[in-house]
Amino acid sequence: MLEVSIDGKRIRAEKDEFILKVAKREGIVIPTLCHHHAIAGLGSCRLCMVEIDEGTGRKVVASCVYPLKGTCEILTKSEKIIRLRRGIISMLRDRAPQDPYLQQLCTEYSVPQSQRYVLPPNLTCVLCGRCAAACAALGNGAIATVGRGTAKKVSTPYDTGSADCIGCGACAQVCPVNAIECIETKDTRTLWNKTFKLIPCEQCGVPFTTKEALDVVREKTFSSTHSNLALCPDCKRKEVLLTPVRF
Ligand code: FES
Q1: Helices in the chain by DSSP H: which ranges?
Q2: What's the pLDDT score for residue 219?
Q3: What is the pTM for the complete model shown?
Q4: What top-level class would CATH report for the domain 2-108?
C-alpha cells in the first residue's frame, strides 16, 4: 500500500492504481469525458488533468491513465489545473455545443459562452475515441479516426457501410456526447450507413440485437450453444435472478 495526498487529504492506495480511481473512491470529483469504466484508458480528452509531485517537481498528468508509483502529492484543483481545464472545456464545448454535460462544466468553470475556436459547422463529435475503442473491444474494429486537422472525424472506411460493422451499437452507447446516429425502427437498426435486421429475444420476442452481433459474441465467448446470449438484457437479468444459487 502507498500513502498519497490528494488536495491535502492523506489517502491509502495500491501501487499502480490510477489517480482517478483513487480520487473517485475518496469522493474527490475530477471531471472526465473519454474515460469509461469498461474501456481501457484512452487519456485523450485531457479533462481529468491533475498536478502531481513525486519528489521531482510538479507536472501535469491525465489522472485516468496515470498509475501511482510511490508517495506523492496531487492537486486536482490548483490554479494551473483550473486554467488548463477551462481551455479544454471551451474547446470541447465548441465541438459539441449542445451537450448538457459540457454546458454544465462551462457554468461550473465560468467558461464564456462565446465560441473560441473556428470549426466546421454542425460538429457534434469531440473525438474522444471511446466509440472506436468500444468497437475494437466489443465489436469488430469497424470504425476509426480519419482525416486531419479540423476535418478529423470518426468513420468507416470511405464513409460507406462496412463489412466489419456488426450493428451492435456499442459505439453509440458509449459516446459521451450522443454524436453517433443510431436509428431504430421496430425491427431494424441503421448506423454507419448500414441497415441491419434486428432479431427477437428468445424469451419475450422483443427485437434487441443483430444476427451479426450475436455471431461475434458467440465467437468471442466460444459459445455456439449458450442460449442465454439470445436473450434481451431484461430477460437475461430475470434469468440470473431466477437461477438458484448453489453452495
Ligand atoms: S478522462 Fe482522462 S483523458 Fe479523458
Answers
A1: 19-25, 79-95, 100-108, 130-138, 170-174, 211-220, 233-242
A2: 84
A3: 0.87
A4: alpha beta
Domain ranges of the chain: 2-108, 130-242
CB-based contacts of 247, cutoff 8 Å, min separation 6 = none
Q: Which residue's CA is the nearest one to ligand 1's atom 3?
A: 43
Q: Could you give the CA distance from residue 126 to residue 155 in angstroms, rounded to a whole number?
A: 13
Q: Which residue has the cell 485516468?
A: 64
Ligand 1 binding residues, C-beta < 6 A: 32-35, 43-48, 62, 64
Q: How confident is the model at residue 157, as a pLDDT? A: 93
Residues of the chain with pLDDT under 70: 222-228, 243-247
* Euclidean distance between CA atoms 154 and 8, whole angstroms: 40
Q: What is the CA radius of gyration of the chain?
A: 21
Which residues, at least 6 apart from 99, have a Cβ–Cβ distance to it below 8 Å? 93, 124, 126, 176, 177, 178
> What separation in Å is there between the alpha carbon of 115 and the centre of ligand 1?
22
pLDDT at 223: 63
